[in-house]
Amino acid sequence: MRSSLRVGHVLTAVALAAGLVVAPAHAADPPPAAAPRTSVRVDNPYVGVRAYVNPEWSTRAAAEPGGAAVAGQPTGVWLDRIASIHGSNGRMGLRAHLDEALRQRAGVVQLVLYDLPGRDCGRLSTNGELDASELPRYKQEFVDPIAAILADPAYARLRIVAVVEPNSLPFLVTHTAPRSWATWQCETVKANGAYTGGVAYALAKLGAIRNVYSYLDISHHGGIGWDEDRKPTLELLARTARSGGGLGAVHGFIANTADYSALREEFLVKTVINGQHIRQSRWVDWNPFVDELSFVDAFRAEAVAAGFDPRVGVLVDTSRNGWGGPNRPTGPGPETSVDTYVDTSRVDRRVRIYNWCNQTGTGLGERPVAAPRPNVDAYVWMKPPGESDGASIPLPIGDENHNRMCDPDYTGYPGASQYPTGAWRNAPPAGQWHSEQFRELLRNAHPPL
Known about the structure:
By secondary structure, this protein is of the alpha/beta class. 26% of the residues lie in helices and 11% in strands.
């Protein structure tokens, strides 16, 4: 058994290797050349095309010292409330992003649908706008308008990568009974079918649009890596997909969305230290995986065995998992004990693998790139670097429901005095620009900028 301490978890032209080309257009560019009105379905939507660069994020990134080095990178566009579909508070709506993608002559646009009823049930509080009972609103006011826009023939030549509701289905496994960290919010949405019904509906609606490629979230190795979590999560994903147009409606999976788990722990080269397996260490905590690449390889193989398409691909969010800088290990640590060896060898420097909010010491990870290795469709920056995960202190009612995992002084969960949250102080509300963290991401980027 693993420890019960585990709690929930401007524009610059850039050419990227392996076929993912990012080349934002400029105001003086001529209109895009005539293109076919239909898109040929492809195995990997990232290969051979330019990825859309969100000008709103790019402008903020470029305004930071050194930010121009990454301001031309593609990032995900998050549709996190009904108002975001048409734009609000001066922000671009979905059509504006798609029109800009055409102007840039981009070939792939990355969207994140993130507004389930009772959203984020596994967190200490939910930040969603819809109540757990509002599945009809989710379908009619959120999914339907998105699908209608994406089905517009004007956008038929764009490949639309749609990440469907991260931090949702895995929570129905990890944060419901009999787990000791079950939440009443997750119990509620599991019982009323808000998550499974919402995701199935979104898959069915998006699956009817030929140029949309839907990816389901599979958390990360520190979220569902354990057999008791990973296998039930896969079963739940399969059941949900079958009720939402079939397994073929899922083009792939995405891991580490908006998280910090390292791609590979290159210095954990030994498995047994002084007679103890590294799984017995506090950090690994009986998890069969220590990094994301080993996890996604195994999960994908199990998904294919469960009936998903053998060509199913995986995305890995590398926006904040570089963990570079002067404190990055350069080799295996001392073998005085299994905990010492793991803690001094691991690249991921979080105190606990479940810490997720505005982590300090982080760096940009691998740059977005198509097909970096077999069965991985792309490394992506689905979470726009520099956007806060949540406010570090409670805010006035109406701004954001405060999540205590964003508070560096929070001690309300087991072991918190020994294993703090690792969150930044003075962080702004979720989605707002966090300049200090972005500058640290630049400094600690690995590979270095």
